[in-house]
Specification:
There is one protein chain. Helix 17 links the parallel strand 18 and strand 19 (467-470). By secondary structure, the protein is α/β, with parallel strands linked by helices. 48% of the residues are buried. Strands 3-2-1-4-5-6-7-8 form an eight-stranded mixed β-sheet, sandwiched between helices. Strands 10-23-25-24 form a four-stranded mixed β-sheet. The chain is built from 24 helices and 31 strands. Helix content is 39%, strand content 20%.
Length: 712
């Protein structure tokens, strides 16, 4: 790889260092106005060549990073033209994007330009404050131009991810408004607070001398580079003016409350702001826990059932009352998608949802794209339904969803006659689905995936003739059970499920039991923490989901089911779990689909067991919300565990008695299951374990940290 840097300051330098660390053989070249950074970077072995001109040095780069202040970056673009090839991705690291996009479009129409903005930094500029770790775990905005091909975007995303950053793709205008609010206006607030204190201070300078804590924290960024911030303000003028008006009016609000002496209103206002801040900024630190987990608890509703209750309720006739609904971000995405198609869905903001079904043919064309957020289940299942509609639609999601393989549903849906295509031609979302007439098929899936099976069966509701799906192993069967309970003609025979269209779906009230995937973290934690005796009540134990119970029992875990019953057609039980001395086992074959989401947790628990655990036949883990084989291995290794990644799983040599895992800052890649699994590891590891993106647990378990860390 060859990468060029125009200007080697704090961000350019940190990026070059991170690339050098990851790609020791890469050729890195840099231009800078002043000599010192270049000389130092050459000495450090960070760059291979330095120049004071934009010249031949930049020919044939795979990437060129514009790392000067925003306006200055633009001035370099014409000078780079002779050295850009078709395979050069031109990018920048500037804090505003709309202006550079405009400039690039004018100067080099069709350029392979992808705006970039790592959301990291510090108030000190220059190469001499740069470090390879500065960008670690940061969000990295990417704003592809029309000239950037999907291959360019993929390459860029992969590069960014390989540097341990989290790429997020957005539109340049949207980017500028977002960072206006979370970065640009806060800088203005900081500069002006400092100015206030400067102007108001007395001749004794008490303010200057005693300024500490709050003042320092709030104004840290007022030490930032004035040149850079002058440029940013001018480049993002309109957004900043609008947001500053908003900020001024908020200051006026609080001023009014203070002047009125409205204690309650002030308290409420501060609480609201504090809670929001805590929910977005805090990382969570987990300490070793000396006591076991005891008492009784319940986990939130099952994610798979909650999705289906909304979706099938929407296309049923009548009203579906859902109780125990999982109020997590994924299921909210499902609600939003169906609302966008004209379905009236009431949600009390908690566990109660009422869906006013519109019948199989009552959905309306959505105005915009259907955004499935982080939810693979929404994306795949909804595509099956959309394939049968008489309107065109586009389905997309966040960066994680847009990386996940969709060919697995596109192939069978196309075979049924669906007109479904990947917008970027990479077999990933966004998916464009146009009206067509469907016919039933008999399809053998390559992977045991409930999402694939469900997408096909849902399209089958709209097809002429019957549809049969045969899986290599049985995946979770909620779709079959719920559709059948709602009146669909559906039949199971071994590993095959057949649906005969023609019946209308009738609304049915649904009581969602606790999600066994969420219970799993507490089962795992209770097993490895001495002195545990925990009862997790009302948890779904559908045999196509509950493989984890069998596996933990096989490992010597004291896990048992109490109070087993059928609730609204689903098997539920209270799960009793007590601390146990665990030993290794092999997990492979047909049991894998029944515990696929629990495998990261099982790997963590295996690291605390005696002996070797082998997990096989789980290559699917690579295409979940993150590459879970890579992430589990990386984090467990960093904690000191003996784990090896294989093509389709892991080999974990349990810690046994002498070795003790130690806490780390967990690279969770915003994957909820990784964050929760490693929070469990943190309870039994020495020192602090820090979950960097704790907010990601809200995908499937919004109150997770409260439940895990609050003593009962
Ligand atoms: C799900 C099926 C599983 C699972 C996901 C939810 C579902 O995915 O990993 O969290 O609700 O159908 P696959 O079906 O792709 O294995």
């Amino acid at each position: 790889m060859k990468a060029g840097f125009i200007s080697l300051g704090l961000i350019g330098g940190s990026l070059a260092m991170a690339i050098r660390e990851k790609y020791p053989d890469a050729r890195l070249v840099a231009y800078n106005r002043s000599r010192e950074p270049l000389i130092q970077a050459l000495k450090d072995g960070i760059i291979d060549a330095a120049t004071f001109e934009i010249d031949e040095t930049f020919r044939d780069c795979d990437y060129i990073f514009l790392c000067a202040p925003v306006q200055t970056n633009i001035s370099f673009i014409p000078r780079l033209i002779p050295y850009l090839s078709d395979s050069t991705v031109l990018t920048d690291v500037g804090s505003t994007k709309a202006n550079i996009h405009k400039a690039v479009a004018k100067i080099i129409p069709g350029a392979h330009f992808i705006g970039g903005h790592p959301m990291a930094g510090k108030e000190k500029s220059s190469y001499f404050n740069a470090s390879s770790g500065l960008l670690k775990n940061c969000y990295y905005y990417l704003t592809p131009s029309d000239g950037a091909s999907s291959e360019d975007i993929k390459r860029m995303e992969e590069l960014i991810r390989s540097l341990d950053c989290n790429p997020i793709i957005v539109d340049p205008d949207k980017h500028d408004f977002i960072v206006g609010a979370i970065s640009h206006v806060p800088h203005m607030a900081a500069y002006m607070l400092v100015k206030l204190v400067k102007d108001e201070d007395t001749t004794e300078e008490y303010m200057r001398v005693t300024a500490a804590g709050g003042f320092k924290d709030t104004t840290r960024v007022a030490s930032s580079d004035p040149t850079m911030w002058t440029e940013i303000c001018l480049a993002n003028r309109d957004n900043m003016l609008k947001l500053m008006d908003g900020y001024i009016s908020k200051l006026r609000d609080v001023r009014r409350l203070i002047s009125k002496g409205d204690k309650d209103a002030l308290h409420a206002l501060f609480s609201e702001a504090r809670d929001y801040r805590n929910s977005i900024i805090n990382t969570v630190k987990i300490r070793r826990r000396s006591k076991g987990l005891t008492g009784r608890m319940q986990v939130p509703g099952d994610k798979s059932i909650s999705h289906r209750a909304v979706m099938f309720g929407a296309i049923a006739e009548g009203i579906t009352h859902i109780s125990g609904f999982l109020n997590g971000a994924d299921c909210i995405s499902t609600i939003n998608c169906f609302r966008a198609m004209g379905v009236n869905i009431e949600h009390d903001g908690g566990t109660k949802v009422t869906v006013h079904g519109v019948g199989l043919h009552g959905l309306k064309k959505p105005e915009g794209v259907l955004d499935c957020g982080n939810s693979g289940t929404t994306t795949r299942l909804i595509s099956g339904i959309l394939a049968g509609q008489d309107f065109a639609s586009t389905v997309t999601g966040d960066a994680s969803v847009r990386r996940r393989p969709m060919k697995r549903i596109m192939t069978p849906l196309k075979e049924m006659g669906a007109d479904i295509a990947s917008a970027d031609g990479n077999d990933c979302a966004p998916l464009i689905i146009k009206p067509s007439s469907l016919h039933g098929i008999s399809f053998k899936t390559e992977v045991a995936s409930a999402q694939v099976k469900s997408a096909i069966l849902l399209a089958g509701l709209y097809a002429g003739g019957e549809t049969t799906v045969t899986e290599p192993a049985r995946s979770r069967d909620y779709t079959e059970l719920m559709l059948s309970a709602m009146g669909a003609d559906i039949e199971r025979d071994g590993l095959s499920v057949t649906l005969r269209p023609g019946n209308t779906l009738r609304a049915k009230d649904i009581m969602v039991p606790g999600d066994i995937s969420s219970a799993a973290y507490f089962i795992g934690a209770a097993l490895i923490l001495k002195g545990s005796d925990l009862l997790i009540e009302n948890t779904g134990i559908n045999p196509t989901r509950a493989g984890i119970i069998e596996v933990f029992q096989r490992m010597g875990g004291d896990v048992s089911l109490e109070n087993e019953k059928l609730t609204a057609g689903e098997r539920v039980a209270d799960i009793r779990v007590r601390s146990s001395l665990l030993h290794g086992t092999e997990i492979s074959g047909d049991i894998i689909p029944t515990l696929i989401d629990e495998l990261p947790l099982i790997a963590v628990v295996a690291a605390f067991a005696e002996g070797t655990t082998v997990i096989k036949d789980a290559a699917e883990l690579k295409v979940k919300e993150s590459d879970r084989i890579a992430l589990v291995t990386k984090n467990l290794k960093a904690m000191g565990a003996d784990i090896e990644a294989t093509e389709d799983g892991f080999i974990i040599n349990g810690e046994g008695s002498p070795r003790q895992l130690h806490g780390i800052a967990v690279d969770d890649c915003m994957d909820h299951r990784i964050a929760m699994s490693f929070a469990v590891a943190g309870l039994a590891a020495d020192g602090d374990t820090e979950i960097i993106h704790p907010e990601c647990v809200s995908i499937s378990y919004p109150g997770f940290f409260k439940d895990l860390l609050t003593d009962n």
